[in-house]
């Protein structure tokens, strides 16, 4: 499958902080990722959204027939860049070192025809407040249906026996 990439280098935000914003959108649809980042309160989300838009644009420039819902984030890597070394003066003529960290971000988008997300393959469990797998939900509903069927059949047998 065709892949498209974009990189952002020397971003003056710590990689640890950028990874928090990157974890929000990893392994999702590119269009949904941009929307998620635009409404995020993290400082790193704005440069990340700009990078995502750049990757989407490069994909559209290469192949104009690509729909936005076909682009998925295959890889979103946040690496450590060079550190700017500074010193902070403290008491008694001393100085403490300060490292101002930078980040390198790489986004690789991949074209996929149809891809189902975890949210589509699960149902909401009202007891725990978490999504539950479809298989479990199906088995529980089938068990409920079996109980209802046995109640109906026993009730119908009683009616037949009375008449």
Give a quick precis of the structure.
The protein is α+β, with helices and mostly antiparallel strands and 163 residues long.
Q: If you had to describe this structure to a student in words, what would you say it looks like?
A:
The chain has a three-stranded antiparallel β-sheet, covered by helices on one side. The protein has a two-stranded antiparallel ribbon with strand order 3-4. The protein is 41% helix and 28% strand. Strand 6 (122-124) and strand 7 form a beta hairpin. Helix 2 (30-38) runs antiparallel to helix 3 (45-62). By secondary structure, the chain is α+β, with helices and mostly antiparallel strands. The relative contact order is 0.17. The longest helix is centred in the C-terminal third of the chain and has 29 residues, at 134-162. It has helices at 15-25, 30-38, 45-62, 134-162; strands spanning 3-11, 71-80, 84-89, 95-100, 103-111, 122-124, 131-133. The protein contains four helices and seven strands; from the N terminus they run E-H-H-H-E-E-E-E-E-E-H. The termini are far apart. The model is unreliable at 117-122 (pLDDT under 50).
């Amino acid at each position: 499958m065709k892949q498209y990439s974009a990189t952002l280098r020397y971003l003056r935000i710590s990689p640890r902080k950028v990874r928090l914003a990157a974890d929000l959108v990893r392994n999702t649809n590119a269009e949904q990722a941009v929307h998620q980042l635009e409404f995020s309160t993290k400082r790193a989300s704005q440069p990340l959204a700009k990078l995502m838009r750049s990757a989407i644009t490069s994909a559209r420039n290469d192949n104009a027939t690509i729909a936005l819902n076909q682009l998925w984030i295959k890889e979103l890597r946040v690496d450590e860049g060079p550190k700017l070394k500074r010193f902070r003066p403290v008491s008694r003529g001393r100085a403490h070192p300060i490292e101002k960290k930078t980040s390198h971000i790489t986004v690789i988008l991949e074209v996929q025809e149809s891809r189902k997300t975890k949210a589509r393959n699960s149902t909401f469990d009202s007891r725990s407040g978490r999504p539950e797998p479809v298989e479990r939900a199906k088995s529980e509903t089938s068990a409920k249906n079996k109980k209802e069927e046995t109640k109906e059949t026993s009730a119908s047998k009683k009616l037949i026996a009375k008449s």
